Amino acid sequence: MPEQPTDYRVAVFGSGGVGKTSLVLRFVRGTFRETYIPTIEDTYRQVISCNRQVCTLQITDTTGSHQFPAMQR
């Protein structure tokens, strides 16, 4: 019997303009964005194999802006 999928939530935090979105897009889509487009919040899903098990990652790409200080706690 195949094992049940395992879901994980991943949040990416950091200052604005450091490459959080570029890192996430490289992992999820295999592309790299070199231009800076500020992110409010985006969510991506990626299915991977982890220890011979199917894992689903829900990746939240957060803002680096000081407009949302609660996100930095």
UniProtKB/TrEMBL annotation:
Biological-process GO terms, alphabetical: signal transduction
Record organism: Schistosoma japonicum (Blood fluke)
Single GO term (MF): GTP binding
Top-level taxon: Eukaryota
PROSITE patterns: RAB, RAS
PANTHER family membership: RAS, DI-RAS, AND RHEB FAMILY MEMBERS OF SMALL GTPASE SUPERFAMILY
One GO cellular component term: membrane
Name of the protein described by the UniProt record: Di-Ras2
Family matches, as Pfam families: Ras (PF00071)
UniProtKB keywords: GTP-binding, Nucleotide-binding
Keyword set includes GTP-binding: yes
